[in-house]
Amino acid sequence: MIVSVASGKGGTGKTTVTASLAVSWSRPVMAVDLDVEEPNLHLFLKPKVTDTEVVTLEVPEVDESMCTYCRKCAELCQFKAIAVMGRAIMTFPEMCHGCGGCMAICPEGAIGVGTRELGVMERGVVRGTLPCLTGRLRVGEAMSPPLMRHVRSRMRAESAAQSLDVLVDAPPGVSCPAMSAVADSDVIVLVTEPTPFGFHDFKLAWEAFSPYEKPVAVVINRAGLGDRRVYEFCAAHDLPILAEIPYRRDIAEHYSKGMILAELDAGLGDLFSKLCRDLRELAKEVRNA
Amino acid sequence: MREVVVISGKGGTGKTSLTAAFAHLAESKVICDLDVDAPDLHLLLDPAIIRDERFISGHEAVIDPEKCVGCGLCASMCRYGAIDEKDGVYSIAPLRCEGCKVCVAFCPEQAIDFPPRHCGQHYLSQTRFGPMVHAQLFPGQENSGLLVSRLKKEARALAEEQGLDLILCDGAPGIGCPVIASLSQTDLAVVVTEPTPSGVHDLERVASLCDHFRTKVAVVVNKHDLNPDQTSRIDALCSEKGYTLLALLPHDTAVTEAMVRRQAITEGGDSAIATKVRQAWQGITNLLHS
User: Fold this and answer.
1) How far is CA B35 from CA A87, B63, B193, in A?
2) How high is the mean pLDDT in each 10-residue block of chain A (289 residues)?
3) Are A129 and A244 within one domain?
4) Interchain pair B11, A10: CB under 8 A
5) A242: which of A132, B102, B103, B156 is 20 to 30 A away, CA to CA?
């Protein structure tokens, strides 16, 4: 099963929850950081990196000696990545989405495959047994979805081959990176905090993910802070609140040292063990429904 | 005219609470929420919408089932896996379609339409602190960078028209498309961080993005007292890279309490944290005019 941990609002505790679930999970599991713009899961799980792969996007490389300046490529390109001006052709590889249209449409076969570096994918092992995948976007690169697609395909292949469950740390927000991060999951965990910002973005995320028709479970972080509206909303929409992490200064200090929350004390250890069981149960119910 | 963007790399460090306070303190400005994906600034500023416009950007491919003969060429050419096939019937998943037009151009039956895509709404509003431009991208949409650029353009036009000399922007988390767009023509990026491994890691990445685009960086450390060692690390990083360390803000529930009251932290009395935020704003003003 694949569990995605998402949130809408950033900084609500996605990485805290993912890392704690990873060390509490009772079956073989893989941890995947799909927040490729700001990957943080490795800061807590501290994997030993075993291999690093540079991930690239196919962009046009024009052989001008073969180009007849017919403009078919520039007319097709929706991203202003290729332009023909008189008897000159220019490419703007940083604008390219890698659709391959220019290469396919060129009647002269003048457009070959170049590459743009998107970032890297690191594979590592946590505590000797737990595989971990991290996508890390190159600073200056604007597009995260193609790098995420690459990490997701490795994630699916490896988890299927070794029959691993998967825990995904998703990026914040509800635009295309966040939506594509949760696309593969069997269960979505929404982590929120009971503040006006937390509640507002929680509703955005809940609405955004609802077309996927996947079961959603809620974890409330910093419980005791803010107001009660997220609780009322969950009750009204039949959303199960599977765990509440209390608002405590020692928790924030523990986090600030890069330590895993499930390992702070026995109570929190039990909280995450129970959350693991409840999530597995929720996935089972859905499979049997 | 000057432009300031409040960003963070990591989400949830306090960008929006701080931007709202700066909006309270600054004079003669246009307020701009560039977190078009999950905007929150309106929750504190309670804008009255004056103009509401559709944000149309790019196109999406739609297969006409009447014309489709089921040859599957589109699915084999689509690099985004956006074309699904079920029992010989092809359809396009809008969330995965990038609007590249490849399927439209190569379909031998011209069976694929390519209508413009309505990606969100954008607004011009009035708030108790002055005019505000903001937006809401629809879930799963791309083009957030284009919407950010649109908002900035509107903010500049508005500032020009009303003779205002500052554009104050709340930015998005991360370092991708919308953040890159928000840095364009920006005089100063105020990076809000916290003394945690994630806070420091994400500060380093977002600040190096600013360096890449030659945008000046100033740093605010929120919840500085949580971990003095990490705060010293941030201090050292700022010295090494030439970033101005504007303020160290304490870990204080006053921030959430103000949020629950729908107020900026500098409104309604001078708490310890409000005094620090005023100092940070003074620092920003000095940097803008240095």
Assistant:
1) 42, 33, 17
2) 96 98 97 98 98 98 97 97 96 97 98 98 97 98 95 97 97 91 95 97 95 95 95 97 97 97 98 97 83
3) yes
4) yes
5) A132
Domain B2-56+120-288 CATH (choose: 3.40.50.300, 3.30.870.10, 3.10.450.50, 3.90.850.10): 3.40.50.300
Residue of A nearest to B41 (CA): A197
Residue spans of the domains in chain B: they are 2-56+120-288, 61-114
Per residue in B67-83, pLDDT tens? 999 999 999 999 999 99
- End-to-end Cα distance, chain B: 14
Q: What is the pLDDT of residues B122-138, one digit of tens each?
A: 999 999 999 999 999 99
Of A98, A176, A227, the CB nearest to B140: A176
Task: Report chain A's C-alpha Rg in angstroms.
Answer: 22
**A197 contacts in B (CB within 8 Å)?**
16, 40, 43, 259
pTM: 0.96
- Please check whether residues A208 and A122 belong to one and the same domain: yes
Nearest CA in chain A to B228: A256
Last residue of one domain, picked from the residues A117, A135, A161: A117
What CATH number has the domain bearing residue A75?
Answer: 3.30.70.20
**DSSP letter at B155?**
H
**A37 contacts B101? CB cut-off 8 A:** no
State whether A73 and A39 are in the same domain: no
Helix A196-209 to helix A229-236 angle (10° resolution) is 20
Rounded (10°) CA dihedral A68, A73, A75, A77? -160
Please name the residue that has the structure tokens 């269960």.
A187
A140/B209 CB distance under 8 A: yes
d(CA B98, CA A100): 12
Nearest CA in chain B to A14: B11
- Answer yes or no: do A241 and A201 share one domain: yes
ipTM of the complex: 0.94
- Report domain B61-114's class: alpha beta
Tell me the residue range of the domain where A265 lies.
2-55+118-288
Say whether A40 and B197 touch across the interface (CB within 8 A).
Answer: yes
Cβ-Cβ contacts under 8 Å, B212 against chain A = 139-140
Six token digits for residue A201 = 């973005």
Cβ contact B184:B167 at 8 Å: no
Q: What CATH number did the domain enclosing A132 receive?
A: 3.40.50.300
If one counts the domains in chain A, the total is: 2
| A–B CB contacts, 8 A cutoff, strictly below | 180
User: Is residue A200 domain-shared with residue A284, that is, in the same domain?
Assistant: yes
Question: Which positions in chain B touch A11 (Cβ < 8 Å)?
Answer: 10-13, 173
Asked whether the beta carbons of A18 and A41 are under 8 A apart, the reply is: yes
Q: Which of B106, B142, B195 sits opposite A256 (nearest CB)?
A: B195
Which residue in A43, A76, A179 is closest to B95 by CB distance? A179
Give the nearest chain A residue to B262 (CA atoms).
A196
